[in-house]
Each structure stands twice: as structure tokens, then as C-alpha cells.
């Protein structure tokens, strides 16, 4: 996997701690950025720290994949500021959702598409879960298909997240692992997906629009999302992803495996850059 020219990256292996609140430590002291002014950082503060660290890897002239979600929004905001102040130039972005496209356009970030720029220098995006292998669950914001297309086309993929996203195994947070499905016979696939992971105590639910109605959530691609909730972590992410993808009517799943070049995690004591 390609390495990034991030400063102070340590590639020493991770050692699992006993405490579940901090899943990783290193055999050497990790690089960190400590807050000098705020002893207690909010989750948004942590996301912004991770985003700012990731943007340090952006150079003028790059084609960038622009992620979706609350942490990725801080990345886009920072890029807009650096462009407006002349600290970066000749940047062009490929957004992974309509809302990222709207945010980037409002900040005067030039935009393009994969059709016109099939090679991306760097993608930066958030994650919903990060395991010790740097495999990910993504897509709770509903943009998993476009995120995966853009990030798969990128030479480097930096993930930014706060430490609440760390899990010992994918699905371990008990929150949604999304699967994008076509609208046609969505319930048929919901039942099949739930049955596929029956031994993991999986419950499948159709994602709703969240506007107080019972209308299904519809992705930017015109599809539905079936959210899978696991009582136990997925044992083999690659096998699970292969079985999900083999189902007719499944468009994409939220397991992003072997894709992250590095993960920037912001915690209460600072920012750590994790690489394989």
C-alpha cells in the first residue's frame, strides 16, 4: 500500500490494550498535537483537529476526492480557506455527494468528475468505524457508493475521525453498517441480508428519510439503504463483503476494506496518525 509523506508518521505495530476505551497503543510514543488552550475538547473540536492534520498533505495542483459527512465537511471548509487566502492554488475536487458538492461550490472550490479526471491524487474522508487493520465502515451519511468509487480511484486515501470511531472489529459499535439496494423488491433483499448474518445477531432495517414520515431514505443515486445492526462484530470482512455484493439488487456495501492509506484519529490527548 502506498505511503504518504505525512510528518512524524510512526509505522511501529499496534499492541492491543486491555481497556476497551483505547483500543490501540504503540511500542513507541506516538506523534501527537496537544491542545494548549482547551483542556476539554468537544467532538467537533476533535474532528477539526483531524481534518486540519489531513489537509497538511494537500499540495497545490492536486486532484482531490472530497468526502461526505461531518468530519469531511471540516476538510472542505479548511480547503476553501486555504484557497481563498492563496496558501493553496490550482486545486480541483471531486465531491462524493450532492451536499459536499454544494458546500465546495459555496467556498469557490473548483469541481470536476471522475469522467474527466479518472486519476485522483488524494482523497480525504471520514469513517463510521475503524478497526486495528485500518479497515472501515462508512456510509451512515448515505454516500457510500460515490465515496467508494472516488476513494478507489485515489492514489492515497486519508481517513479522518475522532477516537469514538475505533472498534475492535467491524460492526462492533452496534451502529448501522449500510447496504445500498435498488428500490425494486427491497424487502426481499432486507430479509436475505439479515439471514446472511443471523449467527452475528444481525438486525436489518430500511433507512427512513428522517423527516418524521415513514418515507424511505433515497440516496443521491435513487436507491434505498438497508442498515445492518450487529450484536457481534463481523468475523471476516472480506468474506462478508463478497457475499453481500453477490446478491442481486445490491448496489454497494459500507465495508471499505484495504483502502485506507492512513487514518488520523483525534482524541482527548491529541492527534495520532496510524498507518499499516
UniProtKB/TrEMBL annotation:
Coiled coil spans: none
GO biological process: pentose-phosphate shunt, non-oxidative branch
Highest taxon in the source lineage: Eukaryota
GO molecular function: ribose-5-phosphate isomerase activity
Pathway where it operates: Carbohydrate degradation; pentose phosphate pathway; D-ribose 5-phosphate from D-ribulose 5-phosphate (non-oxidative stage): step 1/1
UniProt keyword list: Isomerase
EC number annotated for this UniProt entry: 5.3.1.6
Gene3D superfamilies: 3.30.70.260, 3.40.50.1360
SUPFAM superfamilies: D-ribose-5-phosphate isomerase (RpiA), lid domain, NagB/RpiA/CoA transferase-like
Cited Pfam families: Rib_5-P_isom_A
InterPro entries named among the record's database cross-references: NagB/RpiA_transferase-like, Ribose-5P_isomerase, Ribose5P_isomerase_typA_subgr, Ribose5P_isomerase_type_A
Catalytic activity reported: aldehydo-D-ribose 5-phosphate = D-ribulose 5-phosphate
NCBIfam families in the record: PRK00702.1 (NF001924), rpiA (TIGR00021)
Protein family per UniProt: Belongs to the ribose 5-phosphate isomerase family.
Protein's name according to its UniProt entry: ribose-5-phosphate isomerase
Biological source species: Hibiscus trionum (Flower of an hour)
Amino acid at each position: 500500500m502506498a505511503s504518504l509523506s505525512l510528518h512524524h508518521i510512526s509505522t511501529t505495530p499496534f499492541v492491543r490494550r486491555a481497556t476497551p476505551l483505547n483500543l490501540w497503543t504503540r511500542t513507541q510514543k506516538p506523534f501527537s498535537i496537544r491542545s494548549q488552550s482547551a483542556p476539554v475538547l468537544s467532538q467537533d473540536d476533535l474532528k477539526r483537529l483531524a481534518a486540519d492534520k489531513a489537509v497538511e498533505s494537500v499540495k497545490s495542483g492536486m486532484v482531490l476526492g472530497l468526502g461526505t459527512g461531518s468530519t469531511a465537511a471540516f476538510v472542505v471548509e479548511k480547503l476553501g480557506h486555504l484557497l481563498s487566502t492563496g496558501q493553496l492554488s490550482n486545486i480541483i475536487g471531486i465531491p462524493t455527494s450532492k451536499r459536499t458538492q454544494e458546500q465546495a461550490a459555496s467556498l469557490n472550490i473548483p469541481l470536476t468528475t471522475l469522467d474527466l479526471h479518472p486519476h485522483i491524487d488524494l482523497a480525504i474522508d471520514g469513517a463510521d468505524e475503524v478497526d486495528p487493520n485500518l479497515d472501515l465502515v462508512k456510509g451512515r451519511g448515505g454516500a457510500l457508493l460515490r465515496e467508494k468509487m472516488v476513494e478507489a480511484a485515489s492514489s492515497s486515501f486519508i481517513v479522518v475521525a475522532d477516537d469514538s470511531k475505533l472498534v475492535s472489529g467491524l460492526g462492533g459499535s452496534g451502529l448501522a453498517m449500510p447496504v445500498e439496494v435498488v428500490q425494486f423488491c427491497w424487502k426481499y433483499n432486507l430479509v436475505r441480508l439479515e439471514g446472511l448474518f443471523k449467527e452475528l445477531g444481525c438486525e436489518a432495517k430500511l433507512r427512513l428519510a428522517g423527516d418524521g414520515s415513514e418515507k424511505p431514505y433515497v440516496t443521491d443515486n435513487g436507491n434505498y439503504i438497508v442498515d445492518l445492526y450487529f450484536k457481534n462484530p463481523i468475523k471476516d470482512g472480506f468474506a462478508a463483503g463478497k457475499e453481500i455484493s453477490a446478491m442481486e439488487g445490491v448496489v454497494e456495501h459500507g465495508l471499505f476494506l484495504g483502502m485506507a492509506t492512513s487514518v488520523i484519529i483525534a482524541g482527548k490527548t491529541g492527534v495520532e496518525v496510524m498507518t499499516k
